UniProtKB/TrEMBL annotation:
GO terms for molecular function: ceramide glucosyltransferase activity. GO terms for biological process: glucosylceramide biosynthetic process. Belongs to the glycosyltransferase 2 family. It is a multi-pass membrane protein. One of its GO terms (cellular component) is Golgi membrane. Its EC number is 2.4.1.80. The chain crosses the membrane at residues 6-30. Pathway: Lipid metabolism; sphingolipid metabolism; Sphingolipid metabolism. InterPro entries: Ceramide_glucosylTrfase, Nucleotide-diphossugar_trans. Keywords: Glycosyltransferase, Golgi apparatus, Lipid biosynthesis, Lipid metabolism, Membrane, Transferase, Transmembrane, Transmembrane helix. It catalyses: UDP-alpha-D-xylose + an N-acylsphing-4-enine = a beta-D-xylosyl-(1<->1')-N-acylsphing-4-enine + UDP + H(+); N-(9Z-octadecenoyl)-sphing-4-enine + UDP-alpha-D-xylose = beta-D-xylosyl-(1<->1')-N-(9Z-octadecenoyl)-sphing-4-enine + UDP + H(+). The gene is Ugcg. This is ceramide glucosyltransferase. It is found in: Golgi apparatus membrane.
Length: 399
C-alpha cells in the first residue's frame, strides 16, 4: 500500500507540472502567432506561373450570409482558378444563390454539381466527390460554405504551398469574421484564444491539428492515398486526410491568414453544439482527451494548481487561483489581438464577459460530449467506432 500522503503529493506534483506546461504552451502559441500569422503576401511576379486551383464548395441550404460569403470567391486576386459548387439535392435553395452569382460573374470559371455520390457516411465528402473527380487544377481548395475570403487569401495559401516541394496541405486556422451580438463575441473569443492556442502550439510541435474548413491540398498527394473518397467513412475526414498524407512524408502548413467563418445563423446554442460535436470526435479518436482536456482549460487547471501549490508550497490557494486567472486572461487578450491583426470589434469589458463565458462553458461542453456520445450533424446522427470510423444511426437519404 502506498501511504495516502504520497498519493496526495503525487497528484499535487502532477498538477503543478501540467500547470507549468500550459504556461509554456501559452508562450509558444503567442510567439509563434506573431511569427506565423499575417506575413505580407509577396506581390512580385513569380518565376513560374502560379498553379491553377480548383475550389470545392460543398453547400447545404441557405443562410443570410451565404450569398455575400460566396461572392468573395468570385473576386479573389488570383490568376487561375475554378469554382466547383456542390449540392446534394436539386431542390436546395442554395442552387438559386449559386446560379445568381454565376450570372453576375460570367467571366469567372464556375460550375455547379448536383446530386453528390455516395462513397461513405461523411455527407461533405459525398457531396464533393463528383466535383473532385472533375477538378481540373493541380491544387484543390476545400472550403466550407460559411467561409469568407480576403482577396489575397488564396495567393497566401498557394505561396505557403510553393514554399517547399513536400508541402501537401496548407490549412487556415479557424477564426471568425467581425459580427454583432453575443454569439459572435463567443465565437471570436473561443477561436482566437483557446482554439488558437492549441492549434498554433500543435502545429509548432508538429502535431496534426488540421481542420478542413479551409484547406488547400496538393492533388497528387491526395490521389496517392485514394482521393477524398478514401476518407468518406470518417466524420473527421480532415484529421485522417492529414494523417494519411503525413505518413507518406508530406508536410502540413498553417496559412498566414486565418479562416474567416461567417455563418449567418450564429447562436450560442449552435456554437456549443458544434464544440460538443468536435469534442465527441476527439474523444472517440483519442479517449485520453477526456482526461487531458480539462487540464488545458483555465478554470479546472487553475483550481488543481492552486490546491497543489497549497499542498506543496504552502501557498494560499485563493490568491494563487486569482493571479492564475488574471495572467491567463491577459495572455489570451494578447493572442486574440495577434490573431485579429487589428482592432477588435468589441470593448475590453465585452471581451471579459465573452472570455468568462467561454471558459466557464468549456468544462460543460466536454461533459455533454461525454454523456451523450452520438454525433448530430445537420439533420443526421452518427455513432463513432473506436479509431474514428463512423456509421449513421438513422439514414435519412436514399441514393
Ligand atoms: C496586419 O496589420 C498591420 C498593422 O495594422 C498592417 O500593416 C498589415 O498590412 C496587416 N497584415 C495583413 C496581412 O493584413
Amino acid at each position: 500500500m502506498i501511504p495516502m500522503v504520497y498519493t496526495v503529493y503525487g497528484f499535487a506534483v502532477f498538477f503543478l507540472v501540467a500547470w507549468v506546461c500550459l504556461w509554456l504552451i501559452h508562450i509558444m502559441a503567442l510567439s509563434y502567432s506573431k511569427w506565423k500569422l499575417y506575413r505580407t503576401v509577396d506581390r512580385s511576379p513569380p518565376e513560374l506561373p502560379y498553379p491553377g486551383v480548383s475550389i470545392l464548395k460543398p453547400l447545404t441550404g441557405v443562410d443570410p450570409n451565404l450569398e455575400s460569403n460566396l461572392e468573395t470567391f468570385f473576386t479573389l486576386d488570383y490568376p487561375t482558378y475554378e469554382l466547383l459548387f456542390c449540392v446534394e439535392d436539386e431542390r436546395d435553395e442554395a442552387v438559386k444563390v449559386v446560379n445568381g452569382l454565376l450570372h453576375k460573374y460570367p467571366e469567372v470559371e464556375a460550375r455547379l454539381f448536383v446530386g453528390g455520390s455516395r462513397v461513405g457516411v461523411n455527407p461533405k465528402i459525398n457531396n464533393m466527390q463528383p466535383a473532385y473527380l472533375s477538378a481540373r487544377h493541380p491544387l484543390v481548395l476545400v472550403s466550407d460554405s460559411g467561409i469568407r475570403m480576403r482577396e489575397d487569401a488564396l495567393l497566401d495559401m498557394v505561396q505557403q504551398m510553393q514554399s517547399r516541394e513536400d508541402v501537401g496541405i496548407v490549412h487556415q486556422m479557424p477564426f471568425a469574421c467581425d459580427a454583432e451580438g453575443f454569439a459572435a463575441l463567443y465565437e471570436k473569443v473561443y477561436f482566437g484564444t483557446t482554439q488558437a492556442r492549441l492549434y498554433l502550439s500543435a502545429d509548432f510541435l508538429g502535431i496534426n491539428c488540421h481542420v478542413g474548413m479551409s484547406s488547400l491540398v496538393r492533388r497528387v498527394a491526395l490521389d496517392e492515398v485514394g482521393g477524398i473518397a478514401a476518407f468518406g467513412e470518417y466524420l473527421a475526414e480532415d484529421y485522417f486526410m492529414a494523417k494519411a498524407l503525413v505518413e507518406r512524408g508530406w508536410r502540413l502548413r498553417v496559412a498566414s491568414l486565418p479562416a474567416l467563418q461567417n455563418c449567418g445563423t450564429r447562436s450560442v446554442g449552435g456554437m456549443q453544439a458544434r464544440l460538443a460535436r468536435w469534442a465527441r470526435l476527439r474523444i472517440a479518436m483519442l479517449p485520453a482527451t477526456a482526461l487531458l482536456e480539462p487540464l488545458s482549460e483555465c478554470l479546472p487547471l487553475g483550481a488543481g494548481a492552486a490546491w497543489a501549490a497549497g499542498v506543496l508550497l504552502s501557498a494560499e490557494p485563493l490568491p494563487f487561483f486569482l493571479v492564475h486567472v488574471l495572467a491567463w486572461f491577459l495572455l489570451d487578450w494578447l493572442l486574440l489581438r495577434t490573431v485579429q491583426n487589428g482592432s477588435l470589434p468589441f470593448t475590453k469589458v465585452q471581451f471579459l464577459v465573452g472570455w468568462v463565458w467561454s471558459e466557464a462553458c468549456a468544462p460543460l461542453v466536454l461533459a455533454t460530449a461525454l454523456l451523450r456520445p452520438e454525433i448530430e450533424w445537420r439533420t443526421r446522427s452518427y455513432r463513432l467506432e473506436w479509431g474514428g470510423r463512423a456509421h449513421e444511426l438513422k439514414p435519412k437519404l436514399k441514393f
